[in-house]
Amino acid sequence: MRSSLFLLRCGAAFYTSAMELVNLQNATELLGLTPAQLQELMQKLNEKPFRARQLYANLFRRRLLNFEAMTDLPKTLRRKLADHTIITRTRIEKVFVASDGTRRFLLRLFDGCEVEAVFMPEDHRDTICISSQVGCPLACDFCMTGVFGLKRNMSAAEIVAQVIIVLNAVYGAGNETPHGTNIVMMGMGEPLLNYDNAMKAVRLFADEEGLQIAPRRVTLSTAGIVPRLYDMAQEAIRPRLAISLTAANDELRNRLFPINRKYPLAVLLAACRAYPLSERERLTFEYVMLKEVNDSDKDARQLIRLLAGVKAKVNLIPHNPAPELPYLASSEERILAFQKILVAAGLPAFIRRPRGQDIAAACGQLAARHQANA
Ligand code: SF4
Q: Which of 12, 88, 104, 246 could lock onto 112 through a cystine, CB 3.0 to 4.6 A?
């Protein structure tokens, strides 16, 4: 969600031989399996149930990505697992490091498709921005991901693998998830169009025996797939919700977000009002600041009226311009003036400073320089 630019390349065979590719494609990817599914796997392998708990801890608590390192499992079981399963087929293709410490990971999936994940360090907390689809079908007018369309949904294993691979690259494997790790599902794709896999990933993140990333530390950003918002409201374990708004009237939003024609603002805001929130929780509305498109005082006042009665906060996001897109970034002064109007009306509003700009990796605005050069 909210990607301004994103690369999309698929199709190249990743593994060296066709035979190897076929075998790995048929293997079960363990990073997408729940504890119950690992129990079933152990049953099929004629192993005792407690081996499933050991394997789960190795995969999700210690983030071990090869069986040899799982020394609490007998050698025979490790060999069996290696013969019948695979932990993940996702590999790091390239890493770009920005001057502010942001790292952009270009990840290659088993079928040659590439997605990105971004690691953003801060004092006492880190944020990892992940993708949920290869490409995106929503064709938002200010986003290059939409230009390329949807290639496919990512599996739950592929969604989870992004977090584990990034944590291992930064901190190494073998330890519990660092306290204060946050996840934002704001990379490539619309997570609510890959609902089951996105929610399964959220449950795997949250498991206290595993990754231990509480749902309040996970934010799912959506353009507003309204029926899925009502589904999400029923989930026992659900992430924080962010709505990518960027326009406060239907005329403009229809242009920026074609999905708005299907789910106009009144319908979207009705779902937001019905969404269950804890006492201290607010819905986040993301508002990408586009010069002379949505950044006037009038736009600010319209936004205030639109969000009246909603427990909301607004994140104002400076746009990352790209030559391929017909939008420019609002000036710093304009963003500050816009924020001032919202805050004066009692609407909490924060300016999100872009990260990793020198590697074009601001979260949710991931760049396609690679694509342009491919
Ligand atoms: S919904 Fe899709 S097209 Fe729209 S901003 Fe997000 S990634 Fe881009």
A: 12
Q: Is 363 a catalytic residue?
A: yes
**136 among known catalytic residues:** no
The pLDDT profile of the chain, 374 residues, written as one tens digit per residue, is 555 444 444 543 333 333 333 344 556 799 999 999 999 999 999 999 999 999 999 999 999 999 999 999 999 999 999 999 999 999 999 999 999 999 999 999 999 999 999 999 988 899 999 999 999 999 999 887 877 889 999 999 999 999 999 999 999 999 999 999 999 999 999 999 999 999 999 999 999 999 999 999 999 999 999 999 999 999 999 999 999 999 999 999 999 999 999 999 999 999 999 999 998 899 999 999 999 999 999 999 999 999 999 999 999 999 888 777 889 999 999 999 999 999 999 999 999 987 776 666 443 444 333 443 33
292-308 as b/e: b if 16+ CB within 10 A:
ebbbeeebbebbbebbe
Catalytic residue of the set 116, 158, 190, 286? 116
Q: Which atom of ligand 1 is nearest to the CA of 145?
A: 8
18-86 under CATH 1.10.150.530, yes or no: yes
* Most informative mutation of 144, 145, 260, 268 for ligand 1 (most atoms within 8 A of CB): 145
CATH class of the region 92-373: alpha beta
Cα torsion 241, 244, 248, 250: sign = negative
Best substitution site from 7, 115, 190, 254 to test ligand 1's pocket, by max atoms within 8 Å of Cβ?
190
The verdict on pTM exceeding 0.85 is: yes
| Domain boundaries, given as residue ranges, for the chain | 18-86, 92-373
